[in-house]
Amino acid sequence: MTGGHRARATRPPSDRDLDDLVRRALAEDVGSGDVTTRCTVPPDRRARGAVLARAPLVVAGVEVARRVFELVDPAVVVEPALTDGDAAAEGDVVLRLEGPAAAILTGERTALNFLGHLCGVATLTRAYVEAVGDLPTRVIDTRKTTPGLRALEKAAVRAGGGANHRMGLYDMVLIKENHIAAAGGIEAALAAVRERDPGVPVEIEVRDLDELDRVLAAGGAERVMLDNMDLASLREAVARCRARPDGGPRLEASGGITLATVRAVAETGVDFVSVGALTHSAPAADLTLLIDP
Questions:
Q1: pLDDT tens digits for range 164-181
Q2: Largest CA distance in the chain
Q3: CATH 3.20.20.70 fits 131-280, yes or no
Q4: For an engineered disulfide with 118, which of 55, 60, 79, 248 has Cβ 3.0 to 4.6 Å away?
Q5: Can you tell me the distance from the alpha carbon of 86 to that of 95, in angstroms, rounded to the nearest whole number?
Q6: What is the mean pLDDT of the chain?
Q7: What's the pTM value of the predicted model, to 2 decimals?
Q8: Which fold has domain 15-128+283-291?
Q9: Catalytic residue positions?
Q10: CA–CA separation, 89 vs 79, rounded Å?
């Protein structure tokens, strides 16, 4: 098997990047001030509360939720009851909070927005991973992420048991059909990469078996993305690559893969299945924050 290229793990955002993101989210929601809380809650009132799961979910986003409350008021103490990657049942406590009641109420919606979205990504990812759990195929994400939230969403994919593809345009070559057209063909695109940046990991997209054969003949790709191929074509692509003395490039199936089809795709023998829906279509998980009476 050519090279040792694997799905690339990505780092969480730095503390400064995370704080900048949270501050922008709070500014969007709080604006000039939380008028409801200011009018109804005495400034010296303290409270305890908890964030609970209202349905089964996989936890992700604990740290960003913590930072929401801490940036509203450092006096809020946040104690995670679960960590990213944990499974929560209905009614389980995810976070416990204690501190100024006004700060807890002001940060509530922003924290739950982050948590709901990221737990949703992790929960959907876990469903895909479990569907292929006894097979060697890895479930990976794509760049189809919410602008500004990519690092958090990719961390949520990892919390769900999936793996990351590339972080952005800078850490891996992925030659897609428009690159091929602009470069003058498959062979020209691969040759240009080898000439200009020979050390970077290279993946190329193919739409059919004829294009796969051209890639195999040209060489230079560590991974091939099999785009929107039917199951018979995927099986044949795997057979052609594995018949090569070096085992051929690693193979990634992509395009329209759903929970209903992911296992059948994985059973063809591909190394990866990439699923944009993990980040662009995950339903928000159902969580609530309850203040103790």
A1: 999 999 999 999 999 999
A2: 74
A3: yes
A4: 60
A5: 13
A6: 94
A7: 0.93
A8: Aldehyde Oxidoreductase; domain 3 (3.90.1170)
A9: 109, 144, 176, 205, 227
A10: 18
